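Newbie here. two chains, one complex. Structure please?
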Amino acid sequence: MNSPAGRPRVIVVGAGFGGLAAARALAHVPVQLTVVDRRNHHLFQPLLYQVATAALSPGDIAYPIRSILRHQANARVLLAEVVAIDVARREVRLADGSLPYDFLVVAGGAGHAYFGHDAWEKDAPGLKTLEDAIHIRRRILLAFEQAERETDPAVRRDLLTFVIVGGGPTGVELAGAIAEISRHVIVSDFRSIDPREARIVLVEAGPRLLPAMLPATSETAAATLVRLGVEVRVGTPVTDVDARGVSIGGERLAARTVVWAAGVAASPLARSLGVPLDRAGRVPVEPDLSVAGHPEVFVIGDLSVYTHQTGRPLPGLSPVALQQGRAVAGNIRATLAGRPRHRFHYVDKGTMAVIGRSEAVAEIAGLRFSGLVAWLLWCFVHIFFLIGFRNRIIVMMEWAWAYFTYQRGARLITGDVETP
Amino acid sequence: MNSPAGRPRVIVVGAGFGGLAAARALAHVPVQLTVVDRRNHHLFQPLLYQVATAALSPGDIAYPIRSILRHQANARVLLAEVVAIDVARREVRLADGSLPYDFLVVAGGAGHAYFGHDAWEKDAPGLKTLEDAIHIRRRILLAFEQAERETDPAVRRDLLTFVIVGGGPTGVELAGAIAEISRHVIVSDFRSIDPREARIVLVEAGPRLLPAMLPATSETAAATLVRLGVEVRVGTPVTDVDARGVSIGGERLAARTVVWAAGVAASPLARSLGVPLDRAGRVPVEPDLSVAGHPEVFVIGDLSVYTHQTGRPLPGLSPVALQQGRAVAGNIRATLAGRPRHRFHYVDKGTMAVIGRSEAVAEIAGLRFSGLVAWLLWCFVHIFFLIGFRNRIIVMMEWAWAYFTYQRGARLITGDVETP
């Protein structure tokens, strides 16, 4: 068992926060580790909305998986699409081949859920990948360009209406950033339109924004958004979406740009595990994060649902995925050493959401913060956890630049100029 | 004539170096200026190969045209596609409408010429736009990824063979950068392949590299490339290109990645001007840069061919376009003031090409430079002419980072993982 070839094979599917944490925590464990992802980069998802709103470039929040694991001798990285998992034969099926495993860590993440209305996706794209972010950036910037050329005032008004569906952190961050762009960044750029006339509507089906935070925090966030020029509509489920706008209850919101930041649908990979899934398609896991009946298969992050701590599922946040990745590595090591596994326990170090320049909300160790203090905390934490010294420096510079000049460095429209 | 509405209408088609220089030089002239481009950004084309080779992000070398002209009160910017020019009716035809003009500056630029073999473009993409650069970056990075997974040694060798067609500055810069990536940047990233085994072939039909520079400079460039690990093949026209490689004379070079950096084909816009074009589709212009028979229409930059200075066409370089843009603005101003126009005279301030880290060649005022001195000159000049203080700082940082760490910050593969 000492030659690399004889070592147990561990496959990690997905190099997000969870998968990468598991891989790195296995660095000094005598296993043959394979990390499979269909992207060549690890994505720092909490800052994805900043790419969608032209504050950062795609390269600033993504880092090659190979470079992260470069010096980890027991790890190899495969750029490949996992199509299914055969738990009976202990094999991961790729689009072109298969990989046998002794331990499997499935960290495939989640996409957006359209609650049975998949046709809405075309007109209300979600924000999960770099491609999504580039696409949304393009739509937002093109809406202003088209409004500048439009002579019909009604069409112009629809072009300058932006609807964000979903009042979680992503929705709040997007709405605040679009308000900032229209009120500050591009004010002097146009001749026929005044970008400040743009209408930004944040629509949430539930009773308040940021439902994972305290009610008082939700109120602060809503009040700040309103002050920045965002219309906040809570308790308003979306009943229809098409290319011309959204319907909320009996009301119609005409808008050419709609972004979807609501609902979570786990990766379809979950289905091939052959266990019952929850309503969002997530895999219920055991206290040690393994799948019932398959102690050699672990599921972590947004793809899993863990209820053994509070009775309710843990939220789909990067710190949860990260801690689960480390816990799984510990349990694999324990099993190899003949020791019992540990029960996973999530340590909540706080949550935060940014709303605009010098505006954020945060809850840390039972304390609530808002305004500049919360914003600086948010900046600090997000810079700190970015992978790669270079990315930290570049992002810090971009933020400083944006702060002092009200400019955004990545206002690029790539692709054709036709209406998206 | 003092109200803006009564002022002469000047349309500039294309916001490259030439068009933008013309627009900015008209800042204090009482005209109604419209700049039309089908991109929202001005592109710093001399650094495009650095995006293609993952050293810079797209946003680092592009800047919104609106922001550049933000404070120029007489200018408006239209994001639109120009489909034709009607010189008889003095109208620019857009995909959706038309714009009348009193003066027209056509600066539509050029694409790559495949010398009657347009089918080659699919397998040997050219490098003119940001989209091209992102596509080529993707192909180069994917070739290494696929080689890592390939078990057939012959296919693996083809995947690790890169052919650059064209020995001008772009071809030289691309070949040098790919050599550097394979020899230094990603050496420790793979487990199954040794990226240093990559074969990089630079193919030039003419007798020497960098034909616009002195023969001694060409020799220095070729020797430097060979030292960096590039095979240089001059006097070798390409006779065929397909998905599996290129044919040069009787010889076959099997390669999965081919990049086209040869030949120039002017924008098809030139044809609608109704004057005889040269072989590359460029518009021969008068000494004042206007089109014969149409003193109100000027053509500048890569779309024009100017032979009145040396008898031979001026090269397709950014300084030529830039100086022509300023000259045209001067001639429009002269005409409006009832003064005679000036004959255009290009002032050659030097040419340079970078080959690799600390390696470049330059010719300035009859002096030849190479190695570190030329490289520092190149860095200095390119930083200096980048539009926007932020871009200068970011690019300087990226280069310093790349210099000291041998890393490249933008090694992103976006899009699907399938073979391109």
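Moderator note: Chain B has a mean pLDDT of 93. DSSP finds ten helices and 25 strands in chain B. Thread marked as resolved.
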